[in-house]
Amino acid sequence: INLTSLWADLSRQQRRQPDVVVAFARRGAELGIGGEIHDEVESVLDKHYSDDAADAWSRLPGVDPRAKLARAEAWLTRHPNSVALLLALGRLHRDTGQAARAEGHFKRAISAGGGAVAWEELAQFHQAQGDARAALEAYAHALAARRVAANPAKSAPAPALPAPEET
């Protein structure tokens, strides 16, 4: 039995459940068959969007990042504050060599409440760009955000970034 057979055996209602879609996409990524299941996951997201499923979709291997950009941008028009989509777009733009757009999406994800995960993505972006100072600053914000999340009563919130420029 393979993953696509198991998916086909599920009822339509089961294939709409976000947890099922996420598990399907994550397992496909683990097996390295992202290209084979990409369209199925996209189809579900078009009709039954969830941030977790969008994140799992964005990580599917075997699909040209440029092909994913248009779909992710379209979803973002319907879900403009989706941290998962903003991070996915940041990674996709980074992977296609569009550094300014990548950075803008990572900063928007932080502004949208992405917390430590968004700060870490921004830090990794700066590190890859060779900007050690900006990377260290972003990692410091990620640590602060994790402290706040772990103990909100005793920690001050991480400082917010200025509003990102539209890209």
Keywords:
about 170 residues; mainly alpha; about 70% helix; globular
In short:
The protein is 72% helix and 0% strand.
The number of helical runs is: 10
Total strand count, please?
Answer: 0
Q: State the end-to-end distance.
A: 45 Å
Measured as a percent range, the helix fraction is over 70%
The residue-averaged pLDDT reads: 89
Order of helices and strands: HHHHHHHHHH
Runs with pLDDT <50, length 5+? none
Main sheet: strands, sense, barrel:
none
Shape: globular
Q: What report would you give on this structure?
A:
With 167 residues, the chain is mostly helical. It contains 10 helices and no strands. Helix 3 packs antiparallel against helix 4 (34-47). The longest helix has 19 residues, at 132-150.
Give the helices and strands, then pairings:
Blueprint: H1 3-9, H2 12-16, H3 18-31, H4 34-47, H5 51-58, H6 65-78, H7 83-95, H8 99-111, H9 115-128, H10 132-150
